[in-house]
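Lecture 7 notes: from sequence to structure.

We start with a single chain of 163 residues. Read the sequence below before looking at the structure.
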Amino acid sequence: MLGGSTKRAARRAARLRCGFFPAASDPALADAYYDEAAATSFAEGICSIPARLGFVHVSEDPERDWARIAPHAQHEARTYGSWQRPGQRSAVHVQSADDIDVLRASGVYRVVTPNETVALYEELGDFGTLLLHPLMGGIAPELAWESLALFVAKVLPRVRPAA
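Now the structure, written as tokens:
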């Protein structure tokens, strides 16, 4: 799948015969994708518009791990911010990536307990997306594995995909 946050990116994904996972919750991007897929006879095209995007790190100690993850979240937020152009938007864009409190309050980067992860999954509903992105912004593999192991052991057994 390709990502992007403009109609041009959506059309490009269809022309390249790829699925499309936009960085913004905008139905117009899906329309652009499916229009181009139809125009290029790409019947297998799929576009997944997220209800909300963000980063989720599962932790038994969110305060401890937020301190470990914050520099990586800042790096990613600054990078996404540098890509923004007129007419482009991204659900992971944070206005003030230099302020860790603003970054944390944005809700884009979440460091949560297994119980909070389950609650977030339920809140997001059928089309919500829990974006684990374990190596986001250069996170150490050991920290990433901690989160993934907790997700598998304490979250995944408690959530079920939509029927």
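The mean pLDDT is 86. Keep this in mind for problem set 3.
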